[in-house]
Amino acid sequence: MNEAVSKDRLVLVTGAGGFIGGHLVGDLLRDGYTRVRAVDIKPFEEWYQRFPEADNRQLDLRELPACRAAAEDAAAVFNLAADMGGMGFIETHKAACMLSVLISTHMLMAARDAGTERFFYSSSACVYAADKQTDAHVTALKESDAYPAMPEDGYGWEKLFSERLCRHFREDYGLATRVARFHNVYGPEGTWDGGREKAPAAICRKVIEAKASGRHDIEIWGDGAQTRSFMYIDDCLYGTRRLLASDVTEPLNIGSDQLVTINELVSIVEAIAGITLKRHYKLDAPKGVRGRNSDNTLIKEKLGWAPSIRLEDGMEKTYRWIHDQMAARQKGAAE
Ligand code: NAD
Ligand code: GDD
């Protein structure tokens, strides 16, 4: 793979205590990067993955001095830090989500002043205009569908503003920014309970709980006919690194285009678990848009690649990991 900077240069990953950031730090280290700085606001014991070879730091990146300390000497920055979660979180924490604008702003200023050569920003499919996502049989979203702007309230507005900030830091200050619009990412080592979990992990947890309790029923948010595409973490990491190394300056979808209903997602998990559950639909739960899919025409044209890991395969690995986490937690509680 072409690299954004050579492997002996310092690379900063923010949000490194979280799902994608933790995987990215591991990926860079395994790939021979010798100087990786990993930063997150969470205490070290709460990081999802932590690598002793990295320069691990606990910093609140809403603060400009913390961003300057994080960015010092960094040739490349992957800015993944954000206060975010699935629909259950972003629908009820709009102000908190929007305050991530402080992270975006201060990280860009710090990287500009530190002479950073490449800056990656993780935007989201939540930037897309609401009126283009009202039908479950959605036309896949192409990059130009973000405008005229009417993104997801709170979280989506912050992402769209920060994308725009990246563009103007590139145009006005010469900071080489790259922006990905991630579509719902899932996999092991992610959030699976506590309120920030997204549908793939939540459904795994609920199926495992139902199986263990012998209850044989499951609560699904909405009517189950809403559609999404879900991207496995390995595709996300590969696309992220490819985009940073590329000359693509406009925001790019990094997402799967395997569209499924939430009912189909539940069926996939039931098949993995070897169980069939009675479904209860909670219609007043957070639902988000009716349908969302990624149009991968531009990424194929620009990178000659698009995410391709099948949902059935990624969910198998995710289910096994969540199953083991739940078993370990239960064992810990019993001891
Ligand atoms: P995550 O919540 O697992 O990780 C984000 C990390 O940022 C957390 O560990 C959190 O503690 C950290 N953070 C929050 N505020 C901070 C602060 N003030 N200073 C330092 N660290 C702070 O989320 P993720 O799934 O790994 O997402 C990573 C990025 O990708 C985020 O920017 C997110 O908005 C974006 N994204 C993710 C998805 C997805 O489906 N996972 C989809 C679209 C976009
Ligand atoms: N979280 C969750 N938990 N969602 C459920 C559940 C459940 O138990 N049951 C059904 N759903 C439904 C939700 O109602 C929603 O319609 C759909 O599954 C997807 O929910 P999420 O996975 O929580 O989020 P999303 O796809 O609407 O948005 C996510 O992806 C964006 C990128 O594509 C969010 O995580 C955003 O933060 C992210 O940017």
Verbal overview:
The chain has helices at 19-30, 64-71, 87-90, 94-98, 101-114, 155-173, 199-213, 233-245, 262-273, 297-303, 311-334; strands at residues 10-14, 35-40, 55-58, 76-79, 118-124, 177-182, 185-186, 217-221, 227-228, 231-232, 252-254, 260-261, 278-282. A seven-stranded parallel sheet has the order 3-2-1-4-5-6-11, with helices on both faces. It has a two-stranded parallel ribbon with strand order 7-10. The relative contact order is 0.14. The chain is globular. The mean pLDDT is 97. With 335 residues, it is α/β, with parallel strands linked by helices. Helix 6 links the parallel strand 5 and strand 6 (177-182). The structure holds nicotinamide-adenine-dinucleotide and guanosine-5'-diphosphate-alpha-D-mannose. Guanosine-5'-diphosphate-alpha-D-mannose binds next to helix 3, helix 7 and strand 8.
Bound molecules: nicotinamide-adenine-dinucleotide, guanosine-5'-diphosphate-alpha-D-mannose
Task: Give the radius of gyration.
Answer: 19 Å
Shape: globular
Strand order of the largest sheet: 3-2-1-4-5-6-11
Count the helices. How many?
A: 11
What is the CATH superfamily classification of the largest domain? NAD(P)-binding Rossmann-like Domain
Uncertain runs are none
Q: What count of structural domains?
A: 2
> What series of H and E elements makes up the topology?
EHEEHEHHHEHEEHEEEHEEHEHH
Please give the largest β-sheet.
7 strands, parallel
Structural class comes to alpha/beta
The end-to-end span amounts to: 47 Å
Strand segment tally: 13
Protein name: Nucleoside-diphosphate-sugar epimerase
Keywords: NAD
InterPro entries: Epimerase_deHydtase, NAD(P)-bd_dom_sf
Pfam family, one: Epimerase
